């Protein structure tokens, strides 16, 4: 028989050892008193009840657990925190689940708000760009239809009279006022 087959045979044997036998081995001959035997029987009976609710429960594995095994063997006593957590496990789990749900809701709301704001900003920027383009195009179009500027026209920017006798009454009154203020008028 090679080493692999030997290991498999040992594992197969270990799977068929009842927990009662393991429990009996765990209790040494020196500690075997009527009280200890009753406690062991009680523990094995409780283990069967736990296994009915939790099929994966293994008393041997739990006895080898450093904290639980020591407590069950009477070598240690549980701390107040351990007792509190054991008694209030459902409340603790519910509060953690509620906190997780609140965090998920907050994250979802934040994401939704961020997406909404980003969408609104993107839309606002697109609208501003479109309106600016329209204003620029209409401005360019309007410049093409505007009359030419004063300096750009073929004639002068002011009306010139070839002779003083062609001035209007209003223009003569304006020239008279300018002359009264000391200005020299030339034609």
Characterization of the model:
The chain has 187 residues and is mainly alpha-helical. Among the domains are: 15-77; 79-144. The chain contains eight helices and no strands. The chain has helices at 3-15, 19-26, 34-53, 59-64, 66-72, 80-87, 89-145, 169-180. The chain is rod-shaped. The relative contact order is 0.03. Mean pLDDT is 75; it is low at 1-7 and 9-31.
Short descriptors:
187 residues; mainly alpha; 8 helices; 70% helix; disordered N terminus
Low-confidence stretches: 1-7, 9-31
Name the helicity range: over 70%
Strand content: under 5%
- In this structure, how is the largest beta sheet organized? none
Query: How many individual β-strands?
Result: 0
The overall average pLDDT, rounded, is: 75
SSE-based structural type: mainly alpha
- Order of helices and strands, N to C? HHHHHHHH
Rounded to an integer in angstroms, the radius of gyration calculated over CA atoms is: 52 Å
Euclidean distance between termini CA atoms: 136 Å
Backbone shape: rod-shaped
SS summary, helix count:
8
